[in-house]
Design a protein that fits this description.
CATH superfamily of the largest domain: Tetracycline Repressor, domain 2
Strand content: under 5%
Number of domains: 2
Shape: elongated
Largest sheet: none
CATH architecture of the largest domain: Orthogonal Bundle
CATH class of the largest domain: Mainly Alpha
Number of strands: 0
Radius of gyration: 21 Å
Number of helices: 11
Helix content: over 70%
CATH topology of the largest domain: Tetracycline Repressor, domain 2
Order of helices and strands: HHHHHHHHHHH
Length: 225
């Protein structure tokens, strides 16, 4: 290996290591802030959780507000990747919508701390940070909006229902799994939650003459205890 190639490999390794460490800090901050509240958690506590010095944290984040913004945007970026990956290649708009909702719920389940924190603390962000979060929410919901629009254009979904409104309703339903997990987890597992909420939404949207094509989506609502 040449000296130049070795140097390039070393830089990539260092960059990857820094990215991993930054993600560890984000995850630690999400857990602590979701548990104790944004204002109660110090940078010192986050540093102790991640076993780094306080000074090292400032290599990644300007201050605690910047870290909070990173926590919130990180989970939105997951949605931005997971929804298109789950929905791409599915021609049927209803099944594409179902796949997107399923992916949204599963991403939230993996990042419940960040989701709770985003709901509870995003209002404390500076105006520019709030605007960024709002735009990311719009962008990550777009695949659901588009699937609904396709379903309406093909006569499968009720055209009188505002697609953007329903898409954001579905986002709220997905978020509820994280926000009220303490309650829902005692009643139904994630698969059952997704199936039940999806059936409720689709029963209100799929026009009667097209419902026979989706028995698995419309009739699989889970029983809750």
């Amino acid at each position: 290996m040449s000296l130049g190639a070795a140097s390039s490999t070393g830089r990539r390794t260092t960059t990857a290591r820094m990215a991993d460490r930054r993600q560890q800090v984000i995850e630690a901050a999400a857990a602590l802030m979701a548990r104790d509240g944004f204002h109660a958690v110090s940078m010192q506590a986050i540093a102790q959780r991640t076993q780094v010095s306080v000074g090292s944290l400032y290599q990644y984040f300007e201050d605690k507000d910047d870290l909070l913004l990173a926590v919130i945007t990180s989970v939105l970026e997951v949605f931005g990747k997971d929804l298109p990956a789950a929905m791409d290649g599915i021609a049927d708009p209803v099944r594409r919508l179902a796949a997107g909702f399923d992916a949204y719920c599963r991403a939230l389940d993996r990042h419940r701390d960040a989701a709770v924190l985003a709901y509870r603390e995003s209002r404390t962000l500076p105006r520019q940070g709030r605007r960024l979060v709002q735009q990311l929410e719009i962008d990550t919901t777009r695949p659901l909006v588009d699937a609904i629009a396709d379903g309406q254009a093909t006569g499968i979904l009720d055209p009188e229902v505002p697609g953007s409104l329903i898409a954001f309703d579905m986002v709220v339903l997905a978020q509820a799994w994280a926000l009220k997990h303490w309650h829902f987890a005692a009643l139904v597992d994630l698969d059952g939650y997704v199936a039940t909420q999806l059936a409720v939404v689709l029963r209100s949207m799929v026009v009667p003459r097209r419902r026979s094509a989706y028995p698995d989506l419309l009739r699989r609502a889970a029983r809750v205890s």
